[in-house]
Design goal:
- With about 375 residues, the chain is of the alpha/beta class.
- The protein is built from 15 helices and 14 strands.
- It folds into two domains: about 210 residues, Rossmann fold, CATH 3.40.50; about 140 residues, Glycogen Phosphorylase B (Rossmann fold, 3-Layer(aba) Sandwich), CATH 3.40.50.2000.
Length: about 375
Amino acid sequence: MRILLLGDFSNVHATLAKGFQALGHECVVASDGDHWKDYPRDIDLKRDFGLRGNFSFLWRLMKALPKFRGYDVVQLINPIFFELKAERLAPLYRYLRRHNDKMVLGAFGMDYYWAYVNTYQRPLRYSDFNFGDIIRTDYEAEKYRTDLIGTPKETLNRLIADDCDGIVAGLYEYWATYNAVPQLKDKMRFIPFPIHLPDTPFIAQEKEKLHLFCGISKNRSAYKGTDIMLSAAKEVEKNLPEKLDLQVAEGVPFAQYQEMMNSADAILDQLYSYTPAMNSLLAMSKGIINIGGGEPENYDILGEKDLRPIINVQPTFDSCYEEIEKLTLHPERLPLLKLQSAEYVRKHHDYIKVAQRYLDFYDTL
């Protein structure tokens, strides 16, 4: 099978491509590397600032267009799969549709349906756009709403979702969101995110001091809830300095981020999530405990009955403080949680197993 993956978030497509290739399929990734994270890709479509950057990007995109033909499957990371206005992506989507077989849309992050459904239908107890029946009105939630609802991005998302052959959700909450749209339910499939497992198995060791890591995305701290989690962690560190060591990384490239994370026992990530996303899963694969989203729905959609490695927190300062403090005061919990974290990713997110699930889905379209 020939597969083209367009765009990338959090290394999803680059990792998935390795899985397809390991299974003997041809796969090409064209993306901007997710901006400063600089994830690997076969065709570089990074767009730099300024007039020269714009011309360079458009020239490389025009040269790449003939290479975007003749695939069995084209999968888009998002309706905004390249750094272009929605109005310009619509004809590009139609070009892809004409010159390839199956089109698949990824429900992997911020898009119109994520913003609209969680603002007005609210199938989730909490999300980037709601706390129960209360609509979030912080700056970032309002910014994304304004950008995505009632705009050309909404038109593009609707066009692609209605026209494509299938939609894949990588997290429970994205599945629940798209599943709340009646005309899209039959196209939906939940497939876990892929993770390239470490070459050497994880071995748990007892520790007396908790090493806690927090990675901050540029300009997205409030949106991701990192501001609350980090504030709680700093307060615990202030009260228990001899038991907790906190390390923070902000806006660093992916390779450097991994190096900084590797020495951690636990990671803070995604306060408003029901499930661990790519950063958390990568950490867990190395035996690093995730403090973040681990709601019952996450385990249910995976069919996981035994492993409970994630320290689930509610989207409040008090919940974060309580869970970080408990883990800090009870380092004897670390070995089991670390072992379960690595086993959880091996069981559900191994990139080759996940790639096969994608191939099985493609065959049904």
